[in-house]
Amino acid sequence: MREGTATPVRRQDYTAPAYWIRSVELTFDLDPGKTIVTSRLVIERNLDTPPQPLKLQGEDITLLRVQANGESVSFRHEPGLLVIDNPPGDNFTLDIRNTCCPDKNTQLSGLFSSDSGLFTQCEAEGFRRITYFLDRPDVMAVYTVTLRADKKRYPVLLSNGNLLEQGPLDNGRHYAKWHDPFRKPSYLFALVAADLVAREQLIRTRSGRDHLLQVYVRRGDLDKTEHAMNSLIASIIWDEARFKLPLDLERFMIVAVGDFNMGAMENKGLNIFNTKYVLASPATATDTDFMGVESVVGHEYFHNWTGNRITCRDWFQLSLKEGLTVFRDQEFSMDMAGGPSARAVKRIDDVRGLRQVQFPEDAGPMAHPVRPDEYQAINNFYTATVYEKGAEVVRMMQTLVGREGFERGMTLYFQRHDGFAVTCDDFAQAIADANPGSMLSTRLETFKRWYAQAGTPHVEARGRYDAEQRRYVLTLSQWSSPSAQQPVKLPYVIPVVMGLVGPEGQALTLQLEGEYGHSGTERVIVIDDERLELVFVNVDVPPVPSLLRGFSAPVRLDDGLSDADLLTLLRHDSDAFNRWEAGQRLALSRMLAAVPGAAPAVLDDALVDALRAVLRDPSLDPAFKELVLTLPTERYVAEQLDTSDPQRIHAVHQALQAQLAERLHDDWAWAFEHHQVTEGYRPDSEQSGRRALANRALGMLVRHAVATGDAVWPGKAYGRFKEAANMTDRLGALAALVDAHAELAAPALERFHTLFKDEALVIDKWFALQAGAPETADGRVFTRVKALLKHPDFSLKNPNRARSLVFSFMNNPAAFHRSDAAGYALWAELVIEIDAANPQLASRLARLMERWRRLAEPWQSAAREALARVAAKPNLSDDTREVVSRALE
Ligand code: ZN
């Protein structure tokens, strides 16, 4: 349904529902062309609200019949609603019969067809595309579901909860009846009718209860389910151990589907996953894919408590479940990774994502608080701010109350709210109340500005050392830029984990004026106002401050450190995150210095030597080295500038890469030789770190060889590509050839395609690699993308495939931001085309243009024109309309 005139929904307008739905009995006569849905709702008027009509949501469905208490009842339609003006009393049952059409459901919201069968996706507002309902998360009901379908085509019939019975029916059909004992909102409903097989595992948890775990996939994919199953078991064990949260279901199912807009969905007891986050075998999935499976399986499993047992009162509270659950999956992955260094690597990865996606979002036209105040299309608010910044807000709470205090807070949260639909305030209150006297509880109202204010705060830090007095005075101040909706911003509570590092790299003891005794070498300083002055005493040497360790708050820090200071931190900081950060900042400053001029960028000796020292340091993990030796991305550089010229940034980036390749040539060769993994494949952090470093080294060596006309390293890369024992090494070698535009890239790509033509997820990589390669002066990447759009394997209908080619290309700055605007023309064309079938996917593509105001000319004008072209299109979905109109505002 296209209304086109969507009025925004506002958080302040929340009112409790006028009716409750206590139980739901659903019967599905499943057919891809026309499915008949019969629904019996036990309804109770909410006596706390004035008497009013019952208004049920419905979208793209056809009503056949409606009865109340078994008798006909008068009803009418409003746009998107079925209205019953005079329900028969305060308690009644409503019987509804309607149809929907899975085959025509290209949006993938509601009940849709994929090649293996029929699947549902109900979050946020998909249930109304299945049947008429009070489709809001604070209406929670108990569901009993009967599925009827052709037995041959759909041998597996699943829904939430426990299987009550199943059996044959006439005409080759069969049925299954499911009951979910837990009250849940409609967005957590799910059904699957498909031709699938399952990997099964019985487990007994600590409490002594037995559970059946199942991972359902297509027949040929069973050999790729071991890692998902192991990840599920690890998640169950972890949540019990860390938060005392046990599995509350007899049966827990994961189902993989190839057509899916998002990563996965936490439907109660029946998680539905994008195949990308289930299927993994060493031959077809990279180390990064294995990690992705582990974290998404964990994420969805953790939602069972944070999301399902306690859910959101309304969609403005989305971060209540998402921010918290991302925090939990990050902690899970860190605990799984192992020691301090592997944990730091995971943290660096997460922060890189946050700064590359969420920071720009927070500075652009779609900026919104972690708890938004209004939206037009709720699907547009499944954002990095709600998810990743929301997770940082939870992490800051943990930093303020300590790990044990946080666990106490979680316990109180469940004591108070289990079984209910609540708000972000309820969560913060529980964590604070469990920790009286903490900075979280004494400054709670101020802390909660993290939920209410959009934008990334700035923190400025300046230190003064007084050798005579042996004092070090550190002044910290914060400020936030005004934004359209929030012209005045108030100060935040900002936890700053810090240390002081001496000139020889020693960690100095931190003693504040007025304190007696020693206080350790690291502490949490809390800024809770515009300015804070700290006086450290008994400081014998001039220190270098190491602030915001582990990225303890999502802020932009300006600490004014000199290159010499940063080199000290890069060499010696005991905090691995800040060591990495120091290296990034040194590289970034070289890039930023070179961008405005025409002069070539130069990697100076000091930085080269420091990077070499890291690469050669036997005490450091390969995974960490790989991160330190990776330059900040072009996108990250662009974000530091008010106006950016994507082509100039690309040129600078390429020049520095070339120098890194050349000046560390022998070190790269050493790194490549010495980080080979010869034992059997394990996707753990130790092995994957070695592979990551060896692959980066190979990339550098091939790049340098192609630049100098040498054939040895490209030949070695090709050999490695052919012989590789796993996908990480195979793709690494292929990427080395493709990224360097080596002659051997073409035969390697062809061979890769032949080898994996039947593996959809691997073909996605094949498209993504080509679309993401560094652009050349003669535009080879763009030309390739245009050709690949016509490749027989390409299709815009499948979200993974569309992302692999189109999104990868549009995230490739130099290829996309062409001075002839051809990239933008293609963007406009594709947004419009995708929008007609799948608005959620289209609006995500549309968002890739939202930072257009930051572009220099001629890009800025060309981008505005492309946006205007899309905006002028009548019939645009609400999702895409909201994005382009906010971008143009
Ligand atoms: Zn989630």
From TrEMBL:
Residues 455-558 form the Peptidase M1 alanyl aminopeptidase Ig-like fold domain. The keyword Nucleotide-binding does not apply. GO terms for molecular function: alanyl aminopeptidase activity; metallopeptidase activity; zinc ion binding. Residues 228-435 form the Peptidase M1 membrane alanine aminopeptidase domain. InterPro entries: Aminopeptidase_N-like_N, Aminopeptidase_N-like_N_sf, PepN_Ig-like_sf, Peptidase_M1, Peptidase_M1_dom, Peptidase_M1_pepN, Peptidase_M1_pepN_C, Peptidase_M1_pepN_C_sf. Pfam families: DUF3458, DUF3458_C, Peptidase_M1, Peptidase_M1_N. Gene3D superfamilies: 2.60.40.1840, 3.30.2010.30, Neutral Protease Domain 2 (1.10.390.10), Peptidase M1, alanyl aminopeptidase, C-terminal domain (1.25.50.10), tricorn interacting facor f3 domain (2.60.40.1730). Its cofactor is Zn(2+). Residues 563-889 form the Peptidase M1 alanyl aminopeptidase C-terminal domain. GO terms for biological process: proteolysis. Keywords: Aminopeptidase, Hydrolase, Metal-binding, Metalloprotease, Protease, Zinc. It catalyses: Release of an N-terminal amino acid, Xaa-|-Yaa- from a peptide, amide or arylamide. Xaa is preferably Ala, but may be most amino acids including Pro (slow action). When a terminal hydrophobic residue is followed by a prolyl residue, the two may be released as an intact Xaa-Pro dipeptide. CDD domains: M1_APN (cd09600). Its EC number is 3.4.11.2. Residues 90-188 form the Aminopeptidase N-like N-terminal domain. Belongs to the peptidase M1 family. This is Aminopeptidase N. It comes from Aquincola agrisoli. The lineage of its organism: Bacteria, Pseudomonadati, Pseudomonadota, Betaproteobacteria, Burkholderiales.
